[in-house]
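Quick illustration, no need to memorize.
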Amino acid sequence: MRGLLVDDEALALLDLKRQLTRIGGVEVLDTFQDVAEALEAAASAKPDVVFLDIDMPEINGLEAAERLQDIHPSVEVVFVTAYEEYAVKAFELQALDYVLKPVQTERLALTVRRIEARLKDKDEAAPAPSSPAFIRCFQRMQIEYGKQEQLAWRTVKAQELFAYLLFRKDQLVRKDTLVEILWPEVELKKAYTQLYTTIYQLRRSLEAAGISVKIANAGNSYSLDLGGIASDVEQWENRLRNEEELESLSDEQYEEWLNLYRGDYFEEHGYLWAENERQRLLNLWRHHAMRFAKKMERKGKEALAADWYLRIQQRLPYAEETYSHLMKLYARQGERSLAEQQYQRLREMMREEYDAEPSAEIQAWYSGWKRA
């Protein structure tokens, strides 16, 4: 395999080249002390592997690896680092190749053989076809592709990083913003190490799965290109925006569309940065779910109406409106105990949450109904 070596220390480059020559298997095309020159050479030489020092004076080695991926996506990168515990832990967590300085021949040989095996597997395997994929954001963040497979997130931070880029899709997202959101309590240098290793592995995972999503590096920012892949939120909202289409739906189709809202936006993860979007989408669902329930009530489909009022109440227990509708609906059905139960639940909720009583209108209706 063909390789480039990059390290700002001339002696380190000489030693690494000497050991690789002794081990065999790597044709060293060139060595560089300047990262910019190495990146320029990689664009034309298309090496199989680049041995890259982490601690470079102008461009951090991890950031340089990002640029290498942009230039030559299939290149293998081996990080070379002096012993820094946080960096080593980051590499091991993300399953990235690394060797420690001073470089030990046995460890280097093991790394070379592992990369040889990976390159052989790539050559023998058919190119990963672009998998039809779909992104789910309601309830939990997941990417489905191929035959009902789900992309495996190596870490929860990788999942959150992708989720945030998706939330800001088609926008440039500053790297310092990502660091502040995902690693707010981590020392800055360590936080950027985590960011770069997470981005690097995310790209690898997407590529291996044949998912055509691209994370583009734009200097001090990233952007997400979905490559035409749709999400459940996007599909749900697109239909919502077309009022004429909604009006033309049958009751069954309208209910089916409402059921696409499987849960709140990233509900299981509780991302604080997603709270406003979560509330916005929830309020849209509530508006249309209430609209559907009232429509069913007008049509005399009271059991279905009651089911939807209860579903809304379960998701939004502090909304007085659902209690009122259910009380009156149960009263018409002669279900006195259920009507009374709704009123008592409403009273308890109002006292616990607002230190108040139900509205005067509801109290008046309830008193009149009890006397009837």
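The mean pLDDT is 90.
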